[in-house]
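Working notes for the structural subgroup meeting. M.R. asked for a predicted model of this chain before we commit to crystallization trials. I am recording the input and output together here so anyone reviewing the notebook later can reproduce the run.

Input as submitted:
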Amino acid sequence: MPRSTRRASGILLHPTSLPGDFGIGTLGRNAYRFIDQLRSAGQSVWQVLPLGPTGWGNSPYTTFSAFAGNPLMIDLPELVRVGDLTATELPATGPSHGKVDFAMATQVLDEILPMATSRFFRQGRSKRMADYECFCQKQAFWLNDYALFRAARGHFGHQPWTEWPAALCDRKHQALHQWGTTLADTIRQEKYLQFLFFEQWMQLKGYANRQGVKLFGDMPIFVAQDSSDVWCNRELFRLDPQGNPSVVAGVPPDYFSRTGQRWGNPLYDWDAMIRNNFDWWCARIAMATDMFDLVRIDHFRGFAACWEIPAAEKTAINGRWRTVPGDRLFQALQARLGKLPLVAEDLGVITEDVIALRDRWRFPGMCILQFAFDGRPDNPYLPHNFQPDSVVFTCTHDNNTTLAWWRGLKPQERRRVCHYFGKQRCDMPWDLIRLAAASVARLCIFPLQDVLALGGEARMNRPGVAGGNWDWQLESIDLPPEALQRLAELTHTFHRIETDSA
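Returned structure, recorded in token form:
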């Protein structure tokens, strides 16, 4: 977020939460319609969650690749327009019922993908075929291995790569060649899927930017153990000889959890990263800045020190802090890529070294208003303590909606909030939205659930709860005009109409 950026505001909504004809929101007409409504409400930023291909649990923070896109977001009617499908080959559509149906979306894609792939590759020489070949060449540094990873994973019954035949698990040259030949058709299909995703995403980004809307992405700091990233770059992670993590990521015990959180992601071997000139990180950030105008890095404190847990431990209690060379990383990134449009997710227990790292590299931090009202006037999330170079949220995807949060407060806690507003009664969630818009923070983001004044039924994620997350979905893309008008008025009042070009 360049310091020249004017005050701006935007909406947090993951594309899968858009209404969808085949069980899930996509990059199709409803995404374009959403951008139009953002502009009608004076908003100039659309924030999304990570866009990678999800596995068990459908979490966008646990994906099979740090580079690939989620093929479930591909707009199938667009394939009819470009000639990869016919209208009669699309299955019957169904209305949105407020929940994403990941199983239905996967089934539909599996049914029509072979037809679309076959027709695409039968077309011969064309501009789209040339575009496909250019895409494969430009993205070869991750695409070839990812396509083989997904093809092999499907062939071996969706088992993690550590359960594959030893020669393929260890990426022996002969095994890679053998399986690359055996699975050639599936590999080509996986590459075609990624071409479609990025073709549609970049078209959507172009439209958004032309409408004055910037796209705000999200990048998890860690990657999944069962991912092409770890399989292809074992030397960059702290693994045992079988490819399993020797230590895993998490956070220590705190007020919220007496045993801490054991996330299970493999930790980076930062010495190997240094020897490799941070090439993997440079490639990852370069791709993210191509896809987005602004990128939030989740768990930023992990660039100062990470909580290292022995893999055999069942909880996070017996971990320890391990220093991370964040300064050397950001120095290498900036030397290769220039100014980094990053936002630091600096939530939780943040120490002075984390603050110093964030400020040295001039990354905006985050302020969450739901965390502000603990009765301490020095609470950093109270607006009178904000730094202008920050991003304020009413809440995040991990919080309950603001209306549900408000309903769950005790009477004395509600009085404390109302006292800050100088009111006897609060109008939630709009008082919190107004407080964010009025703050000095250069950018403010409102989850769409708050703009629509939805309750806990619309919560996106419940950390620590295994199922029932990530599936909230809008039932109609036509947002209430009164909510859009109210948001537009606040945006105008507090001078958050537009941003400079990035």
